[in-house]
Specification:
The protein is α/β, with parallel strands linked by helices and 329 residues long. The protein has 13 helices and 17 strands. A 9-stranded mixed beta sheet has the order 5-6-17-16-7-10-15-14-13, with helices on both faces. Strands 1-4 form a two-stranded antiparallel sheet. Strands 2-3 form a two-stranded antiparallel ribbon. A hairpin with a 2-residue loop joins β14 and β15. It is globular, with a radius of gyration of 20 Å.
């Protein structure tokens, strides 16, 4: 079953298919089918539609929770920086919210070498694992916004609870030393983003109390302030973590580059009477991900990885080539 997991991870993490799908959904509709009404102290969700509202410069003024859209992380975080305290929570998606990798290039590569790319994952699951290891070892990352570390630090100094929730599958291949959660934690720390002190009493948790109906393939994982939701909806893993910790948030601000995710998060927590600001972060719509990198660096990585694929195409024994590549890590 591992080769299936590898395929899933690569599709989500490198080829940008998930991002493309989310962007198509967002272009087709910028509406959600939930609206909040207070009745006898409870919040009810109706089938009426409400627009995803654009954030205004006055967003830091306490307004009612809802679904909003902005490409300005400073504006988005102005509300929690000015108004939140230790009873409130800010939850970040990771890819295309905090950092971004070479998603555009891997999408191009997948098209150019489509048949070969599919064959290598279906033919030998160990080879697939090693190829993922190679790709992970050659992915450079950049901030989606250079202000993020300072903004998050301001929140943390106010004791606002900050965590991340990513759709990344927590694949762990001990045979190859492929520990994706640990790699993601280290990547963020290299950018001076550290969520591990938010809940120091819970360093790692495997969601062992999660109902199996919510687990499509792999169980989620919580590690050092980051939820790895895999295929479980993010609002489910977030709520389960709160229950594990015995927390009932006063206010939640959630940021994701998927309109579908922000809709679900808002609908779920607002139905529980929790004030939820669910923000669709649209920066990737206004600036191609490729443009976040210096041209020289981007082109260098393009040549480096494409050369690797070219060698794979002509190598009689792919396993041997991958072993030589792995030895250089």
């Amino acid at each position: 079953m591992l080769y299936k997991k590898i395929i899933l991870f690569v599709l989500i993490f490198f080829l940008g298919i998930l991002n493309a799908s989310a962007m198509n959904d967002e272009k087709e509709s910028n509406k959600t089918n939930c609206k909040r009404y207070m009745h006898s102290g409870e919040t009810k969700v109706t089938t009426e539609t409400v627009e995803i509202q654009l954030l205004s410069p006055t967003f830091s003024i306490p307004i009612r929770g809802g679904i909003y859209k902005s490409d300005d992380i400073g504006l988005i975080l102005s509300l929690p920086i000015n108004r939140f305290s230790s009873q409130d929570h800010v939850i970040f998606d990771v890819d295309e919210v905090l950092i971004t990798g070479y998603t555009p290039f891997y999408l191009e590569i997948s098209k150019k070498y489509k048949n070969f790319y599919q064959e290598i994952f279906f033919r030998n699951k160990l080879v697939g694992d090693k190829l993922v290891l190679f790709m992970l070892s050659h992915v450079p990352w950049v901030f989606m916004d250079e202000r993020l570390p300072a903004l998050i630090e301001k929140l943390q100094l106010k004791e606002v609870k900050c965590i991340a929730n990513t759709a990344l599958d927590p694949l762990i291949n001990e045979q190859l030393g492929l520990d994706l959660p640990n790699l993601r934690v280290k990547t963020l720390r290299n950018f001076n983003i550290n969520f591990s002190k938010t809940f120091p009493e819970l360093d790692t948790w495997n969601f062992d109390t999660l109902n199996s109906k919510h687990i499509k393939k792999d169980a989620p994982l919580f590690k050092e302030g980051i939820i790895f939701s895999a295929q479980t909806p993010k609002h489910i893993t977030t709520n389960k973590l709160f229950k594990k910790l015995g927390i009932i948030p006063r206010t939640i601000l959630y940021i994701d580059d998927s309109a579908e995710n922000v809709k679900k998060m808002f609908k779920f927590f607002s139905s529980k009477g929790i004030d939820c600001y669910s923000i669709f972060y649209s920066k990737k719509e206004n600036k191609p991900l490729k443009d976040f990198f210096e041209v020289e660096l981007f082109n260098k990585k393009v040549r480096e990885i494409e050369n690797f694929f070219e060698k794979l195409l002509i190598e009689e024994k792919v396993e041997g080539l991958l072993q030589r590549v792995e030895s250089n890590f």
